[in-house]
Amino acid sequence: MGFVFFLPKDEYKRMRILQFMAESFLLLVIVLLLGVFLNRFLKFFDDEIGFLFLIVLMSALGYGIIRYIFSGIEYVTVFDKNDFKKELKKISRSGFKFAFIFFAISSSLKFFNVINFNWYDIFGLTFIVLILIILMNYISLCFSFKKNAE
Amino acid sequence: MNNQVKKYRMDKNLTQTELAELVGATRQTIGLIESGKYNPSLNLCVSIAKVLSKTLDDLFWEDS
């Protein structure tokens, strides 16, 4: 059940508090993104504070993403092996598309001297992104398939 | 969503607070249900139906 043990038993109150928590999380993400942006381009804060903004942002988003992946609620139409195979092909295709877009954007940023990475870094990062995207979606697919089969 | 919760609650001589305690909700939630401003979950609907000794149709069915 995660951290929901502190929520009230009354369902209306519980629903409203969860809405407020979702809104405050969105606000937190916006503020942190703003902090990272201000630090990166305007040097508004010290490097340590900018790094801290990034860590907190990644933790908040990362927790939500990980919970979502392991919840099995992403692939709601996968009920048998055929559905599983079809979805797996889609995951591979979309993973490669995403990696291509990532590579294109990174290369453009390097071309316009916005980032300082060398080509090995860009290729390496693209490869890691490709593996991560496919792996995350595959895990989510497995959990969804297991949940739907129950 | 209109419903008959208030009518049958009053037939049973229950206050909103009493009904709320019996079904594990708050008085505010019962008030919101009766005024049609909140749609309760099926669990809560069934709890209310049991306390008021009515069916879900009696309490929540809307005539077209």
From TrEMBL, chain A:
Transmembrane domains' residue ranges: 20-38, 50-70, 95-116, 122-145
Keywords: Membrane, Transmembrane, Transmembrane helix
Protein name: DUF3278 domain-containing protein
Protein source organism: Kurthia zopfii
Keyword hit for Transmembrane helix: yes
Automatic annotation (TrEMBL), chain B:
Domain HTH cro/C1-type residue range list: 5-59
One GO MF term: DNA binding
Keywords of the record: DNA-binding
Protein name: Transcriptional regulator
Cross-referenced SUPFAM superfamilies: lambda repressor-like DNA-binding domains (SSF47413)
KW DNA-binding (keyword) present: yes
A Pfam cross-reference name: HTH_3
Domain of life of the source: Bacteria
InterPro entries: Cro/C1-type_HTH (IPR001387), Lambda_DNA-bd_dom_sf (IPR010982)
Keyword match DNA-binding: yes
